[in-house]
Design brief:
alpha/beta, binds ligand LQZAQKY5, single chain, Molybdenum Cofactor Biosythetic Enzyme, Chain A, binds molybdate ion, six-stranded mixed sheet, Molybdopterin biosynthesis moea protein, domain 2, elongated, 5 domains, binds magnesium ion, about 675 residues
Amino acid sequence: MTPTKLNAAIIIVSTTASKDPSSDVSGNLLTEFFTANSTAESTTWQVVARRIVPDDREEIQGALTTLLEGPNKLNLIVTTGGTGFAITDITPEAVKPFLQKEAPGLVHAMLSASLNITPFSMMSRPVAGVSGSTVIVTLPGSPKGATENLGALIKLLPHACIQAAGIQSSRKLHSRGVESLEKQAGVHGHGKHRPKSDNHDGHHHHHRHHHHGHSHDSSTPEVYTYAEPRANRLGDAVTRRYRESPYPMVTVKEAADLIARETQLKEIVEAQVNEDLVGYVLAEDVTAAESVPAYRASIVDGYALVHSGGKGIYPVVSVSHAAPGSIPPLSSGQVARITTGAPLPPGATAVVMVEDTILKSMTEDEKEEAEVEILVDRIGDGENVREVGSDVMKGDVVLEKGDIISAIGGEVGLLASVGRAWVKVYDKVTVGVLSTGDEVVHHDRKGELRLGEIRDSNRPALLSAIKAQGFSTVDLGIARDKAGALQSILIEALQSVDVIITTGGVSMGELDLLKPTIEQSLNGTIHFGRVAMKPGKPTTFATVESPKKKLIFALPGNPASALVTLHLFVIPSLRKSQGYEHYDFPRVRVVVNEDMGLDPRPEFRRAFVRFDAVDGRLHASGTGGQRSSRIGSAHGANAVLVMPASKEVSEKRRELGCIPKGETVDAILWGQIGCA
Ligand SMILES: Nc1nc2c(c(=O)[nH]1)N[C@H]1C(S)=C(S)[C@@H](COP(=O)(O)OP(=O)(O)OC[C@H]3O[C@@H](n4cnc5c(N)ncnc54)[C@H](O)[C@@H]3O)O[C@H]1N2
Ligand code: MOO
Ligand SMILES: [Mg+2]
């Protein structure tokens, strides 16, 4: 039987460990304990997140909220620490408001087990219960006590977690139609991950309504999963529109990790070795079928001889040009005129450069050299000779699987040099680009714009950037804000492309139809629908089985947002699916040439990075106003500055409201570095 896969998270509550994470031992110990209690037949525990927080109510609750609302569907959260009588011990008080259902039985089991070991456990004040569909248990802080307490529960926890989550077979979930989905939503309540308001001290979080699948089917489930959250249903009544996004806000890193997780390698194909091979990644080791050079060749223009002869006058008995054919053998006391790259006559052991010789006499018809004088002594054996295979030996691995065929030419040249006509590579991804919106018109439409119309700048900009990265593109045009139209364009496009990029229609407007169309009409899975970043907050990433897995990046409509998220999320994914090991754009440290304002969200400011020959450092200048509607902010940009959120910076910078001129930040390089 397939084991039940359960996700666990650990929150280490310790002021000491939060300052010095290396001082924590409980994290590893508990993780190992979960692994040790996983069995191939019934349950596998996976610790998918670990957080270390100080003994601080807000910090503990903040960690719980991010975990509960994060991308990982958690079955269990254990905290360790802060359950005693000390003034700072606050964990049970911080956790309790999250528990919609308390579980005194679990508490009792932990206490009675540890009372058997030490009477001090009388002073542990654990709480346990269920928040939404996640079981939460507070363990004591000592590593020994924590594992003992967890040990008292571990046999029962899988059952408790399955019950709490109401998990059901994924096959059931994926085969259900919209109708059954709606029925489900009507029947079941939503788990809300928030502290109960009565116990809560004024700290507000955004909440997501979970629509976890609940099965009443009694057949044995094999694979356990959850139903995904749903967006506005297509055609919802006005009063039922969401007033808050139901999609949890993920970090840029979490978003990138989810994309990387879902990105698969393209299939392997044979490609011809020519100039079109640039940008491909090899899917095989390439072995030389021939040696280079294939014969003993001269490195210089001069005279071939037997090296031991030394200085003196020699008859010129033959000529070897760099051309195919046969050359007569050479004996000691003779020389043969030879050109660079030409084969050595059999018997010759070295070549002397023409500059180290004098012409002594000509043939009678004065057409050929008769004798030359060699002016140098001590000629080495093999001097100026390229031996067979001295550049590449037959059988050598010249290029390896994973090597990129660069635009510099070295790889194509090497393949050509050993006679390779075809190589195995990962196929290139085909990317479809679709603009959406009733207001969007083709950029070259003649005539003035009518009120509310806007020219489509996203599609040309995105198609250019994708093509320039070497991927195949398909222009999918403009979709109107009609669910049916969007659906049929997407379904058709999925037949011919690997990846679909759309822009617009992903935020909170009633005509923002991308998310509901992907979920309900395409039966897709939205892996995230909001990212903590500026620009690009409503960026959405989904996969659909069609029948192979295809990726959909639904980028925001604002032009600067679309370009930033394309470079940050889409292009790395395309590169990964083509086999690039280093699929992200390079990150460098740059000096800012002007004050760079800080935003509450982590911000990616468009910038021009150049090398300054005076101080030998990279410098960045801004590109003017950074509003996400202003595509001009990407004009001249070869990078984005990775600006921290204002709450993440030092007090001094927070007061200034900027990273001041002359200080440094990280930049992600999209293009070539400029020169001063
Ligand atoms: N109530 C809220 N409103 C908005 C939020 C929010 O969180 N709550 N987020 C804002 C942010 S941030 C962004 S970014 C935008 C994203 O909007 P959508 O992705 O839904 O895109 P649209 O509404 O369709 O268009 C936004 C903007 O971009 C223009 N646009 C669209 N397509 C194109 C194109 N192909 N070429 C040029 N310009 C285009 C469109 O006309 C709009 O002006 O939502 C905020 N709202
Ligand atoms: O997140 Mo939006 O892309 O800033 O305007
Ligand atoms: Mg919108």
